[in-house]
Design goal:
283 residues, 10 strands, globular
């Protein structure tokens, strides 16, 4: 039987938006009430619940592993995951032609660690992997790791599988399609990233405000993420990035984002027409 779940009331919206904010730092404006109604409805149907407050009370009553798992499910359904390969190409030009050679020339211990901090369905870390494999002559004998994290479990599973089609792969240069993708379904235009890419990327669940950050990172990508947080959580996030990143590292954020009034730990640079941030020297 199809459940008839009504739209969130303003009071219910504020209860859920506070709960989501407390758990993840994601701030939802009042204008997002319809969006949140539609997103939560999926979870209510999954639990066979007819009322939003039934779900809210269910969440409040959970403890231990059950609470952890259900809150992961909640954050999964409310997360926005819109991306594609080579999104904002200038970032990847700067990454390939400036950042990677700089790391190769200055790093002494021959380790390279790159973090795609909000990897969504995997297009960003796999694009990073493509760029890196194209520059492997710089890193012969190096230990290399690309860490890809997200707060949504479903997108991590999608990313691990590595199947893509349509708009997601439109901007992949033809020579890279041949080199790094296998055609899986010609009729539907479905491709899978080759094993050489999948082996470079480690996908993991990570909540920015609950979990430990990876350390000894040379390059961080965290693009179009801070827009979902208020100033308090933006400052906290960037401060933690500063603790994670190496002295000669690089931080990429979205073109519409800025660290102005958020952090004094990074210096803004425009390199090859791409905005980028460099950590200031530790005292």
């Amino acid at each position: 039987m199809e459940l008839n779940i009504k739209r969130l009331t303003p009071d219910e919206f504020h209860k859920f938006s506070k709960l989501i904010y407390d758990e993840s730092g994601i701030y939802m404006k009042d204008s997002k009430i319809t969006l949140l109604s539609n997103r939560l409805r999926k979870r209510l149907k999954g639990l066979d619940l007819e009322d939003y407050m039934d779900y809210y009370n269910y969440l409040q009553g959970l403890t231990g592993d059950k609470k952890k798992k259900e809150y992961e499910e909640l954050l999964d359904v409310v997360s926005t995951n819109e991306t594609y390969f080579f999104r904002n190409e200038r970032h990847f030009e700067t990454f390939s032609e400036f950042c990677l050679p700089e790391v190769a020339n200055t790093k002494k211990n021959r380790t390279l660690r790159i973090w795609s901090a909000a990897c969504s369905t995997g297009e960003e870390p796999y694009t990073i992997a493509i760029c890196l494999l194209e520059k492997m002559n710089l890193f012969k004998g190096w230990s290399i790791e690309i860490i890809a994290s997200d707060i949504a479990l479903s997108v991590l599973e999608f990313a691990r599988e590595g199947y893509y089609s349509g708009r997601r792969i439109e901007k992949v240069p033809p020579q890279y399609m041949t080199k790094y993708f296998d055609l899986e379904d010609k009729e539907k235009g479905v491709y899978r990233v080759k094993e050489s890419l999948r082996n470079l990327v480690t996908f993991k669940y990570l909540n920015f405000f609950k979990d430990k950050f990876p350390v000894d990172i040379d390059i961080i990508f965290c693009r179009n993420v801070m827009i979902y947080f208020d100033k308090i959580h933006q400052r906290r996030l960037v401060a933690d990035f500063y603790k994670s990143i190496n002295d000669n590292g690089f931080l990429f954020i979205g073109h519409s984002e800025t660290l102005h009034s958020i952090s004094e730990d990074f210096t803004y640079k425009k390199i090859m027409e791409s905005p980028i941030y460099l950590p200031k020297p530790r005292s």
